[in-house]
Amino acid sequence: MSKMHSLPYSTVTPEQTYLNRRALLGGIAGAGLLAATGARAQEVPEFQIKGFDTTETPNSFKEITTYNNFYEFGTGKEDPARYAGSLTTDPWSVEIDGLVSRPGSYGLGDILAKMDIDERIYRFRCVEAWSMVIPWNGFELRQLLELAGVEPSAKYVRFETLYRPEEMPGQKRAILDWPYVEGLRLDEAMHPLTIMATGLYGKTLPNQNGAPLRLVVPWKYGFKSIKSVVKITLMETQPVNTWKAINHREYGFYSNVNPEVDHPRWTQASERRIGGGVFAPRIATIKFNGYEDQVASLYKGMNLSKEY
Ligand SMILES: Nc1nc2c(c(=O)[nH]1)N[C@H]1C(S)=C(S)[C@@H](COP(=O)(O)O)O[C@H]1N2
Ligand SMILES: [Mo]
């Protein structure tokens, strides 16, 4: 486990720091990855998962931080990069309550000091049929849940984003039912693929990506990955997530990436990789976003076209 936050960051771009580091470590494709970055994404990426990581070439730092969904700052893809600078992320704490043995307010610094910060290159797919490859830094959510002590009766986890309309201009309008809420079943939350991200490209998480702490669940659609989390509640009953509450015909609780179950407005069979350009061929969407071996067992016996 590498402590990515201790990486020096000076005048080089995050991609340079990151790619050099991976080449040094002899990580995925090593120098091949460096050579490939210039001519990225004209072809459909070769898809493979090694350990936790996809071997696809990551999107650039610029792509990942300028094409975002974060409705607290507006509904345009460029709004978060433009307006999220106003968010104060220090001090920050996360309230953990409900069915836990050590409920309370956990300061971010205290949390980070106890977590193993790791690096994960995940494919990330939005229900709107675009995708990216993102090198996250973060820790496994289960570590944080274990810190609070999950009681045996807990079956679900509910997450809540900060509500602070004076810094989040989108919250002054009733675009969504604020604050943004998401949920996972406990076994999904405890899965080693499920992380709380604290950075990307070895750099502190930019506000537009959900600073200082956001969920990432790589086999689910992007909207499950709730940003700027301030509250985590362990529950016995399934929490009501914002998007399902607004439109349950279009958005379910599970929201697993699944090419067999179309959304009424966007195909789920294929996706457009951000940065590939308008002429780049679409990529076939893969069930559970490529993590079928790791997560299919969680849904054994469920009808995924009903529980979408
Ligand atoms: N609080 C909050 N979290 C959110 C959203 C949001 O509007 N508000 N948008 C979701 C959606 S729809 C997507 S696709 C991802 C986008 O994450 P990214 O901008 O880091 O790529 O964040 C998710 N988390
Ligand atoms: Mo999304």
Automatic annotation (TrEMBL):
Q: Which residues bind Mo-molybdopterin?
A: 68, 71-72, 126, 161, 209, 214, 225-227
Query: What name is this protein filed under?
Result: Protein-methionine-sulfoxide reductase catalytic subunit MsrP
How it assembles, according to the record, is:
Heterodimer of a catalytic subunit (MsrP) and a heme-binding subunit (MsrQ).
- Respond yes or no to whether keyword Signal is given for this record: yes
State whether keyword Oxidoreductase applies. Answer: yes
Cofactor comment text: Binds 1 Mo-molybdopterin (Mo-MPT) cofactor per subunit.
One GO MF annotation is: metal ion binding
